[in-house]
Amino acid sequence: MRLAKPLAPGSTIGIFGGGQLGRMLALAAGQLGFKCHIFAPEEDSPAFQVSAAHTVAGYHDFAALETFAKKVDVVTYEFENVPSDTAAFLESQALLAPSSAALRTAQDRIDEKIFIAGLGIPVAPFAAVNSEADLHNAIARIGRPAVLKTRRFGYDGKGQTKIAADTSTGVAWAEIGKAPAILEGFISFNKEISVIAARGWGGVIAVYDVPENHHENHILKTSTVPAGISRATAEEAREVARTIIAALDYVGVMGIEMFVSGTKLIVNEFAPRVHNSGHWTQDACVVSQFEQHIRAICGWPLGSTERHSNVVMHNILGGESARWAEYGASARTGVHFYGKAEARRGRKMGHINVLTPRQG
Ligand code: AMP
Fold this sequence. Notes:
Rossmann fold, four-stranded parallel sheet
């Protein structure tokens, strides 16, 4: 199903998932005059606090899904692990963007790699692993070090383990729960970057400047824009993003993670949703990634991706949230909290965008 005409302010956007990404999508939608209806299984979902309506139900509650689909004008999602039968059902009942086909490709690391490599874009060497014997053979082919990841449901370093020179295959295989997996050659990268790209129903594409990302304990800690890479590499990264988003006939915002290794770009993965490494756009750009996603799925013209400032986005993790007054008193700093009550270790509680005058 495709959008017949742009949705007017007052229309209702259904958002699947009630975390911080859903919350910030709802806030951006509100700015454009839309109402949001959030569907999530957790009673205390952060997105509920800022939305007109919500449904608390499981992702396989098809009666609740049907009722939800009837009440909204378009459905989108804030996380990539929406069960595929649920996405297909929603797509049969309502307008879904991004499509269930894009979601399916992103959900399986092997399908994703085959798809990206098929576009002529470099990815890490990889092999499918379904048993310890497969792992043994895959290591013989790809070599060490390598990274073993579950094919599905991994995030923030969960469901993955490094295969070092002395790692036993049995231990690594057990560590990822003996689930269907992918072995990837270890890329010795200089930098991790990402590209936030958007595409509308009519095929128009908009791409933001490239952030450089730093992780701590597998969780994103900072995104810095501009990245410390050459103009040519940044433009090549943006072109890779354009190629991927167009090939998927995608509608909405996507985050594409890449490694810079020497002068070479290698795509790690893409997320079919707004992305943590795009939060800096809220304060450094005319139109944020959240507004851009809402514009794209609602059939509005895409907004400007122009960046007016240099920026460093810092994630506020766990107990760092106690420093809210300090963040609040900082000059040229955009402060964003997600309304989460419990500051568990490593939990994403909010972020700040620290601006400096634009250079480069
Ligand atoms: P992912 O879940 O694929 O985003 O991986 C999480 C993090 O692990 C990445 O941001 C990288 O820092 C690291 N990583 C993942 N895959 C590789 C690889 N093939 N080579 C080197 N580092 C990797």
